Amino acid sequence: MSVKIRLQRHGSKGRPFFHIVVADARARRDGRFIEKLGTYNPITNPATIDLNVDAAVKWLNNGAQPTDTAKAILSYKGVLYKKHLQGGVAKGAFDEAEAEKRFNAWVESKEQKVQGKVEGLTKAQADAKKAALDAEVKVNEARVAAAAQVEADAKAAEEAANAPAEEVVAEATEGEAPAAETEENTEA
């Protein structure tokens, strides 16, 4: 019987969620499986992977063949590295404690990389939010300035509408007086 480590698709349309399972190669994609090794959620950033490393190594040692995507996930979580280290222990290159120490150091460095990515994404998201807020503040200030300008223009137009009528009357009265003086001057 050929055994595969592969993904079973769950989740709704457009929002995939996968179970990492050990199944007979002849079984349907989402059908019967032998053992569930973990879960994989590609929607989150970075993708969330929950995996039983020891069970996956056991199945790889028993001859289970991972699919391409499952192999990438197993490599990302260090399952293939742990299997490689167990091969070194079997050959006598180093002991079990040294293999465990190397694996734990690798896992620690991997966690730091993932944490750095999470912090970078969080910082980028905060920067984008701040930039959007600054842009919104500028737009609001521009709107307030435009409203103040419209109000000032309306007030000036109102004053201009009232002022010319008064000026015309004043000019007319001033204009009549000199005209009357000129008439008096022409009669004399």
Biggest beta-sheet profile: 5 strands, mixed
- Shape verdict: elongated
CATH architecture of the largest domain: 2-Layer Sandwich
Number of strands: 5
Q: What fold name goes in the CATH topology slot of the largest domain?
A: S16 Ribosomal Protein, Chain: A
- First-residue to last-residue Cα separation: 137 Å
**Order of H and E elements:** EEEEHEHHH
The percent range for strand residues is: 15-25%
As for the number of domains, it is 2
Radius of gyration: 41 Å
- What's the CATH H-level superfamily name of the largest domain? Ribosomal protein S16
**Can you give the mean pLDDT?**
87
**How many DSSP helices?**
4
Helicity range of the residues? 55-70%
Q: Strands of the largest sheet, in order across it?
A: 4-3-2-1-5
The structural class is alpha+beta
CATH class of the largest domain: Alpha Beta
Q: Which runs of at least 5 residues are low in confidence (pLDDT < 50)?
A: none
